[in-house]
Amino acid sequence: MAGDGVKLSKNLLRMKFMQRGLDAETKKQLEEDERRIISDEHWYLDLPELCTKETLLVEEESFVPCEDLQFGRISFKGFNPEVEKLMTLLNPKDEDEEEMDVSRMQTDVTDEEMALRYESLVGSMKKKFAKKRERAAMDQNDINHGMDPEKKRTFLKPQD
Amino acid sequence: MSTTGMFAVLKEKVGQVLVPGDEFCFDAEDTISLSESAKPERAVCGPGLRRTGDRLVVMKSGVLRHKAPLTFWIESQQKRYVATKGETVIGIVTARGGDVFRVDFGGSELASLSYLAFEGATKRNRPNVQVGDLVFAQFLIANKTWSLSWCASTVSLGLVRRLLAPKSDIRSDLEQLFPCELVVGMNGRVWVRASSVQQTLIVANLLQSCDTMTTQQRQQLFRKVQQGAL
User: Which InterPro entries would you find in this protein's record (chain B) (predicted)?
Assistant: First the structure.
């Protein structure tokens, strides 16, 4: 039990049950003191001048980006086709090579062909799952836009 | 910004021999104010150069090289390889323990290569790699990441860079020889495979001997080999 002569420690005074009796002023004081102590303990760099001199200089340890070195696996004369594929994928591209890559796809299906094929495919799939009435409506539209209704429709083979 | 200041001085020195202790100071013009709307060019100081405080210092003796826009480095000869993040090297598996292989790549320490870093490996499906096998892998911090396969002679680091340079003469000479494949590690190790043991040995020997040759000497040697004289 604290008499008038006994001084209470700061920690004790900081405890919740002791704060209930205090008024707002003293509470604020205590809080500020605490905050000051805490921020004093934080470490910070005292170097304002360096910040202004920051150019965007990056330190690079490796020769690879400096000399544009190629991928480490190499195959000659088709000895290892997988490695040759990796070489085309992973090597930094030459500027002259880049333009040729995109247009040259003679054996594969080009993008335009794919797009055309998809267009017709989407239409026919949609028809397949449409209800009878919708299908009739679709056919009506087609006939109106499309060819001569008199002409007999024969099977058209897709041009592959 | 590059017409004056430190970078201009550096550009002038490209192709000259520099020694450790040479310094370049950042000038007032080199600073980039954050209010500028112009796109700042990214400056890169490569191997052999280091930035300390407000100076750029040369750490190795060699020739100063430059690549647009603002990349500078020192080109020097080295035998000893230092592990560098992102580089691919050839290593020898020396031990298996826990979940990693210990791999020797010629550096001061062994590197760790996790079992899971292999293609198609899972905890149940361990990679089929034994002690003594060769791996080709890339550095991630001081650990290796993916690795591919498995033989090697050692060459100088300078030859490695010449083999991997974008339009390499040595590579085009090799291409004329016979079908073969190479794996080149930045640590100076090269692995060769050709269709016969003899051809493999020929290529390996050629690489080792042409390191110190001039272009003409090398092409002469390659021609002799093609004609089957060796």
Answer: Exosome_RNA_bind1/RRP40/RRP4, KH_dom_type_1, KH_dom_type_1_sf, NA-bd_OB-fold, RRP40_KH-I, RRP40_N, Rrp40_S1
Q: Which residues pair with B72 in a beta bridge?
A: B45, B66
Domains of chain B as residue ranges with CATH: 4-75 (2.40.50.100), 87-139 (2.40.50.140), 157-227 (3.30.1370.10)
Contacts of A68 in chain B (CB under 8 A): 67, 165-166
Q: Which residue has the tokens 């013009």?
A: B29
| pLDDT tens-place values along chain A, 160 residues long | 555 578 888 888 778 887 777 777 878 887 888 888 888 888 776 666 555 455 567 888 888 888 888 888 888 888 888 888 888 888 876 655 555 555 555 566 777 788 888 888 888 888 888 777 777 776 676 665 555 445 567 788 888 7
Which of B225, B189, B188 lies closest to B206, judged by CA?
B225
Spatial neighbors of B31 by CB under 8 A, at least 6 apart, are A52, A53, A54, A55
Cross-chain CB nearest to B181 (options A60, A64, A79): A79
Domain holding A83, by residue range, is 73-103
Instruction: List A residues 70-89 in contact with B (Cβ-Cβ < 8 A).
Output: 70-80, 83
Contacts B54 to A, Cβ<8 Å? 53
